[in-house]
Q: What sequence folds into this?
């Protein structure tokens, strides 16, 4: 074995020897976890609208073995059909695989509840978060606060103490799968996410609603940008059209879908329900800005906004 390779092998052995289990490894640090998540589209169905349209054409007797023969007009027609009809199964012929980095595990715990998708997440049983003190994602209430603000002081103190304890336990021989129980729920993570577009739209509808946690709204903004910029420039019209389908559920159904006793108050619910009662479709709403739902307090009654 060459000397350089031998030295590398010895260094690797020393690194792993710090851990109780030889199957424990050091997680690659997440540098941007304190700001915003990163989204990469690993793969997505090419020529997606034409493929969806080729499938849809069979409903009216059309046979297309080559989706490339579908015109732009046909593709957009079937996209409109998918937005105005319950016949949306052709959207399942569009698949998307994303790599999400820098979101907290509080978000991925919600993400994996989607039963119509596949997920592979960074393991904390075997991947040790040596950089844990700098990888706890923060809520919007801390953004812009001075270092001496009571919330900031309390937050920083707690994160420093608990992550230091986590590392001390691991370095003294406790397996990572046990020590990880101390780690804050907001620790940044990575996850691969694979689903079809029909179910992707359904998830967007729920997570872009005011009811969703603030982090989801930031994440979906990144997802929309990634979709629009994916693939060759000649296909961007398809990508933009698909991205336009990702919107809060009330803008798709025309009414509030979160009226249960466990659902939060919503800043636009009364207006949405008034339009619904009048039979007015979302495309006619002029008094509701969809971006209202993206504010952190869009579904929160706090002491401050009650005054």
A:
């Amino acid at each position: 074995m060459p000397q350089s390779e031998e030295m590398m092998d010895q260094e690797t052995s020393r690194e792993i020897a710090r851990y109780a289990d030889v199957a424990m490894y050091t997680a690659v640090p997440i540098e941007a976890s304190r700001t915003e998540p990163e989204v990469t589209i690993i793969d997505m169905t090419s020529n997606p609208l034409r493929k969806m349209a080729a499938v849809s054409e069979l409903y009216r007797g059309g046979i297309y073995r080559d989706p490339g023969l579908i015109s732009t007009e046909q593709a957009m027609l079937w996209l409109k059909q998918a937005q105005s009809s319950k016949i949306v199964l052709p959207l399942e012929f569009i698949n998307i695989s994303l790599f999400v980095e820098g979101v907290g595990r509080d978000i991925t715990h919600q993400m994996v509840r989607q039963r119509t998708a596949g997920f592979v997440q960074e393991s904390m049983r075997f991947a040790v978060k040596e950089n844990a003190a700098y990888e706890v994602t923060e809520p919007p209430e801390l953004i812009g606060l001075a270092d001496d603000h009571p919330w900031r002081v309390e937050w920083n103190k707690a994160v420093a103490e608990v992550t230091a304890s986590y590392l001390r336990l691991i370095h003294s021989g406790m397996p990572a799968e046990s020590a990880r129980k101390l780690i804050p729920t907001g620790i940044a993570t990575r996850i691969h996410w694979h689903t079809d577009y029909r179910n992707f739209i359904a998830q967007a509808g729920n997570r872009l609603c005011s009811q969703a946690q603030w982090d989801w709204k930031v994440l979906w903004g990144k997802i929309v940008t990634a979709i629009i910029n994916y693939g060759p420039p000649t296909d961007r019209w398809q990508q933009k059209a698909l991205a336009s389908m990702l919107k809060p559920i009330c803008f798709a159904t025309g009414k509030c879908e979160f009226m249960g006793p466990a659902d939060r108050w919503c800043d636009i619910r009364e207006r949405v329900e008034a339009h619904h009662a009048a039979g007015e479709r979302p495309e006619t709403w002029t008094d509701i800005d969809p971006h209202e739902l993206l504010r952190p307090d869009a579904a929160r009654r706090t002491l401050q906004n009650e005054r």
